[in-house]
Amino acid sequence: MAPSPLALLLALGAAAAALAEPLRFVDCGSKDGSIQEVNVSPCPTQPCLLHKGTSYSINVTFASKIESQGSKAKVYGEMLHVDIPFPIPEPDGCKSGIQCPIQKGRSYSYLNKLPVKSEYPSIKLIVKWELVDDQDQMLFCWKIPVQITS
């Protein structure tokens, strides 16, 4: 007996939901906001395996505790407690899913890409992602373990 279209749709929905599983992350100093969820896609298990030459989707849901005209992202690879800046295509949070000005008490979905360049070494490290407000205070900061691989 063939499965019904509804059963197939439910199975596909469950598979898609499994790919977008919220990550376990460490909050590293979110002062002006509170993180509700962090998603990196695709990253079905941790540490996230980041393949060279691939871009990963980042989605952070957070609530703002302050008003801010703008926001700026800073991304680092942390090795031996040293932060090495990672370039991202769009550091402006207002061009990354956040409707600015940011309002106190509102929730936002921050969307960005993490490109993993081919020339990066194959290593384990911590990705540290910060979003600062217009006073350079942290709206959010999170860290996850990753492994860069070929």
TrEMBL record:
GO terms for molecular function: cholesterol binding. It holds the Pfam family E1_DerP2_DerF2. One of its GO terms (cellular component) is extracellular region. It comes from the Eukaryota. Residues 25-146 form the MD-2-related lipid-recognition domain. GO terms for biological process: cholesterol efflux; intracellular cholesterol transport. SMART domains: ML (SM00737). Keywords: Disulfide bond, Secreted, Signal. Residues 1-20 form the signal peptide. It is found in: Secreted. SUPFAM superfamilies: E set domains. Gene3D superfamilies: 2.60.40.770. This is NPC intracellular cholesterol transporter 2. It comes from Crotophaga sulcirostris. The lineage of its organism: Eukaryota, Metazoa, Chordata, Craniata, Vertebrata. The gene is Npc2.
